[in-house]
User: Fold this.
Amino acid sequence: MTKKLRGKSLPSTRKELRRERLNSLLPNAITMLGLCSGLTAIKFGLQQKWEISILLIGLAALLDTLDGRMARLMGGQTELGGQLDSLVDSISFGVAPVMLIYFWSLNNVGGIGWAIATLFVVCCVLRLARFNVASADTELPPWAGGYFSGVPAPAAAGMILLPLMLSVETKWHFLQSAWLNLPWTVMISAMMIAPIPTYSFKRIRVSKNLVTVSLAGVALFAAALVTEPWLSLSALTIAFAVSIPFSYLSFKRKQNEELSRSSIDETGSKDS
Assistant:
């Protein structure tokens, strides 16, 4: 009887193992697709096909959003997947976008252009390393998970590509000037490593009352992305940049509320 039960449990155990492997494999496969997309953007940048390159980096950003959500939904979150995601982000949102800007503009000023391009990649890697350390910190309050420290890598990629996207749409040649893109690249590099609280849009929860409006907004943005891709992507990037002061004020307000609660608790414990 025991042998029969054991024999029947083996197939179910194998199915569970296969399911677990699949749950961890699919998110990592999406991450790898993001890496391929970022590297291919560099290839088209060498051919000066800027539109395709920008779209490929946008695709990498979309895949970066999907892999984490899929891992959480399927229960396939692993330490390997987290480290792999950061390594891919450093290429897709660090190396790839700044190489496009270098091919398009920064190479016109020689060595200084390459130095600034290198600075952007270094700051991106430092920002991702700090994110990995912060993710392992269990002492942070729950509300702090709704914020990043510094501009996240995908948003920084969009911001550094903003002059190129606007140039593709408007044909304004002054946007290609290296003397415009040099300080712009330095500023975005500094914003990645600066302790500036920025919204973590991955953790936004939409209330039931706003689901219909949110879906309509997503459909509207998708339609705009198809008809006017460069204006839509530029508007999305500018909207994130505009949100930074609000995220800073929101973070400080919650931080002050947390300090006030802590001081009240300490006062109450001393009185008791």
About this structure: The longest helix spans residues 2-46.
